[in-house]
Amino acid sequence: MPVVFRRVAVLGAGTMGSQIAAHLANQGIPVDLFDLSTELVEKAKQRLAELKPSPIYTRDVLDLIAPGSFQDEGDLERLRDAEWVVEAVLEQLPVKQQLWQRVAPFLRPGGIYSTNTSGLSIRAIASVLPEEARRRFLGTHFFNPPRYLHLLELIPTPDTDPAVVGAMRDFATRVLGKGVVLAKDTPNFIANRIGCYGLMVTVRAMQEFGLGPDEVDEITGENMGRPKSATFRTLDVVGIDVMKDVADNTRAAVQDPDEQAAFTLPDFMRQLVERGWTGEKAGQGFYKRVKQPDGSREILVLDPATMEYRPRRRLQAPSLQAVRAIEDPVQRIKTLLAADDTAGRFAWEITRRTLAYAASKLGEIADDVASIDRAMKWGFGWNAGPFELWDALGAAAVLERMERDGETLPGWLVEAIKNGPGRFYVEEGGRTLALAAGGRYIPVEDDPRAVDVPRLLKQNKVVDRNAGATLVDLGDDVLLLDFHGPKQAIGPDYIQMVEKAVAEVEANWRGLVISSHVKPNFSVGANLMLILLAAQTGEWDEIDAMVRRFQRANLRLKYATRPVVVAPYGITVGGGCEVALHGDRVVAAAETYIGLVEVGAGVIPGGGGTKEMLLRAIENVPDVFSGKYGQTPGPATTDLTGRVNLQVLVNRVFELIATARVSTSAAEARQLGFLRATDTVVANPEHLLHEAKRAVLALDEAGYRPPVRRRIPVVGDSGRALMELAAVSLHWGGWASEHDLKIARKLAHVLAGGDVPPGTEVDEEYLLDLEREAFLSLVGEPKTQARMQHLLKTGKPLRN
C-alpha cells in the first residue's frame, strides 16, 4: 500500500527547511516547522510569502505550517505525531548531531527520520541515534529551491531498513513530485559531486583561456544544453559562499591528490566570499547591477584579475552564431564541440574533463550511468546527462578524441565502448539497459507511472502524424494527440490533427489525451507569425478562416462523443489555454502557468477562450440557466433579493482576461477558474500522461456523454458599459494605454453579448462570432501589429 504521511515535522526554518516545509504544505500535508523560537518560524513563513519565485502554490498553504520551538518541550511533544521528521539545519556535522540528540526522545516509534544535507556523511549524523532509530534514518537531499528542482537524492546508510527507503521513494515520487535517485553515502553524493567538479573545471578553464565570466556564460548555457543561467549566473544564484563550502568539504573528504587539487577554490573566489560579494543575495558577485544617471540599470561583470567590475562584452566566435540557429539541443552541442574556435575549444575542454570525471566516479557515487545522468538532468537542469551526451555524440568517437587528448579512463569502460556494445545505453527485449561499474549492463529502473512517448514512437505506436503533431497509441484504447511544433504554437498542423483525432477516436477509441512530450512548456499560444504575415499582406479572409477553423476544432473537442482530457504543464497561455478550456477534464502538472494573455499581443482570445471563461464563471451558480438571475451591479454574487448577480461574475472574467492574468501554479489556476473542481493536479510531471489516460478510462467507464449545449444569459449593453467604465478608470489612472482601452472595449463587447438587452440568452456560435469579429478588427490595428512584432522578436509584451 502506498505510504501516506498525515503529518510531517521539519527541523530548521532556514532557507532549505522553510522551503521544504512549504513544498510539503503545497501538497496539502500539515507541517510542524521548528527553530530556536516560534518567532523565527513566523518570520520564515513571512519570507515564504515574499520570495520570488514563490515557494508556495497559493498563500493559504501557509496555514498548514505550524510553528514550534526546539527550546520548548511541549512543542517537541508534537514530534510524536510526525510520521516523518526531516532535519535541515546548518551544514555542520556537530550542529546536526546535537539537534538529533535533543529530539531523539520525542521521535515517533516507527516513524521515518532524515537529514537534508548537500554532502555531509549520513552515517556520521545518524551515529548519535539509538539503534532502532538508525534503522529508520536516511539522507534526503532536496535541491534548492525544493518546489522547482525535480531531483531528490535518497542516501541510505548500511543500517537503513530497505523498506524505509522504498516508502520514502514512493512518497517522494508520487506525492512530492520528485525525480528520486539513490545515492551512496560519499562526499556530496551524485549531483553536487559531478556538478561542483564541472563548475570548478569551468572556472579554471576560464583562467586558462583568458576569458571573462560573461564570455564563459555565453558558451556554457543553452548552447551546451544547460540552463540559461549558465555557469557564473548560476553561482551568483546559488551563492558563492555555498559553492566555497561545497568545494572545501569535498576537498577535505577525498583522498586523491588530483581530485583535491580540482576542488581547490581559486584565490579570487575566496576574496569574493571575504568581501561579502557572494552573489544575488548580497547584491553582487560575478555580476552586479548598477544604476545609471538616467535612472536605467546596467549589469556589470567582475574581472577576476583586477577584482573590479566592467561592462559586459560579447565573445566573438563564429560557432556561437552558428549554434544559435539550431533548434535541436544535441545537434547544437555537437556543432559547438566540433568548432575550431575559442568557444568550440573551450566547450570541448570542459566537456572532456567532466565526462572523464563522471566515468571515474562510476561505482563510487552510483552503480550505473543512469543514476548519474538523471541526477544531473533533474538537479542541475542539463538537457542530457554526461553519459547520454556521450552516446549522442558518438561514444567511440568521443572516446578516441579523449584518448588523443591524454585522458585516462577505466579499463572496463574502454572495453565496453571499443569491444562491447559501443554505447552506454542499449535496448534489449523492449527494455533499456545501462552500463554499470565493472562493465556489465543492468536494466534501467522505470517508473511505472511515467509514459515514455519517444519510446512509444520507436515502438511504432504512431497512428497518424504531420509536421506539427502525432497521434500515438497510449494503450488500453486511448489515443494521444502529441503536438510538437516550435514552442508548441497552435497552427494549421495542430488543428488538422485535432480534426483527424476526433474522427478517429469517435470511430475506434475509448478517448483522447491532448498533451506534448516536448519540455518545458505545453504551448505559448497561437502561431503569431502566421497571423502577422497575413495581416501585413491584407489577407483578412485567410485570418478569418484560420480563427474560424480553430474555433471549430475546439468545439469538436468539447462535444466529441468520446472523452477528451487535456494534460498541460509549464507555460500554457493563449491558444494553449483555450485548448485546455475545451477538454472534458484537465489533468495539469502542479507547475502549470495558465492564462489568456492575448491582450499582450494586441488582441482578445479568439479560439473560444472568452466564451469558455464566461461559461465557467456561471456554470456552477444555481438558477443561472433558468432565468432566475439579477442584473444589478453589486459586490457579491447575489443581490438583496437573493438573485444571482450575473454582472459580478462577468466582471471577474473581464478583469482576468483584460489584465492577462496567468496562474503561478495549477492550484492558483483552480482559484482563478482556469481549472474546475473536477480537474486533477499532478505533482510529478512524469506522471502526467499516466494520470490523463486514467481520467479518460474513468470517464469512459462511467458511461461518458458529451455536455449538453445550452443558451447563455448575458449582461447586455448596460453590463458592457459597466465593464468599459472600469477600463476607462484604469486609463485615466495611467494603468492602461489608449490601445489597452480599445482592446478592453472589444473584450467587454464580447463578454456582454454584444448590443442586446440585459438578460438576453445567446448560443455559443453567436459568442464565437463576436470573438472572431473583435479579433479580426484588432489584428488590423497598427499598434496590435507592433505588439505582435515586438513579442515575436523579444518574447516580451509591448505596452503601446
TrEMBL record:
<keyword id="KW-0276">Fatty acid metabolism</keyword>
<dbReference type="Pfam" id="PF00725">
    <property type="entry name" value="3HCDH"/>
</dbReference>
<dbReference type="InterPro" id="IPR001753">
    <property type="entry name" value="Enoyl-CoA_hydra/iso"/>
</dbReference>
<keyword id="KW-0520">NAD</keyword>
<dbReference type="Pfam" id="PF00378">
    <property type="entry name" value="ECH_1"/>
</dbReference>
<keyword id="KW-0442">Lipid degradation</keyword>
<dbReference type="GO" id="GO:0006635">
    <property type="term" value="P:fatty acid beta-oxidation"/>
</dbReference>
<dbReference type="Pfam" id="PF02737">
    <property type="entry name" value="3HCDH_N"/>
</dbReference>
<keyword id="KW-0443">Lipid metabolism</keyword>
<dbReference type="InterPro" id="IPR036291">
    <property type="entry name" value="NAD(P)-bd_dom_sf"/>
</dbReference>
<comment type="similarity">
    <text>Belongs to the 3-hydroxyacyl-CoA dehydrogenase family.</text>
</comment>
<dbReference type="InterPro" id="IPR006176">
    <property type="entry name" value="3-OHacyl-CoA_DH_NAD-bd"/>
</dbReference>
<dbReference type="GO" id="GO:0070403">
    <property type="term" value="F:NAD+ binding"/>
</dbReference>
<protein>
    <submittedName>
        <fullName>3-hydroxyacyl-CoA dehydrogenase</fullName>
        <ecNumber>1.1.1.35</ecNumber>
    </submittedName>
</protein>
<comment type="pathway">
    <text>Lipid metabolism; fatty acid beta-oxidation.</text>
</comment>
<dbReference type="InterPro" id="IPR029045">
    <property type="entry name" value="ClpP/crotonase-like_dom_sf"/>
</dbReference>
<feature type="domain" description="3-hydroxyacyl-CoA dehydrogenase NAD binding">
    <location>
        <begin position="8"/>
        <end position="186"/>
    </location>
</feature>
<keyword id="KW-0560">Oxidoreductase</keyword>
<dbReference type="GO" id="GO:0003857">
    <property type="term" value="F:(3S)-3-hydroxyacyl-CoA dehydrogenase (NAD+) activity"/>
</dbReference>
<dbReference type="InterPro" id="IPR006108">
    <property type="entry name" value="3HC_DH_C"/>
</dbReference>
<feature type="domain" description="3-hydroxyacyl-CoA dehydrogenase C-terminal">
    <location>
        <begin position="189"/>
        <end position="288"/>
    </location>
</feature>
<dbReference type="InterPro" id="IPR008927">
    <property type="entry name" value="6-PGluconate_DH-like_C_sf"/>
</dbReference>
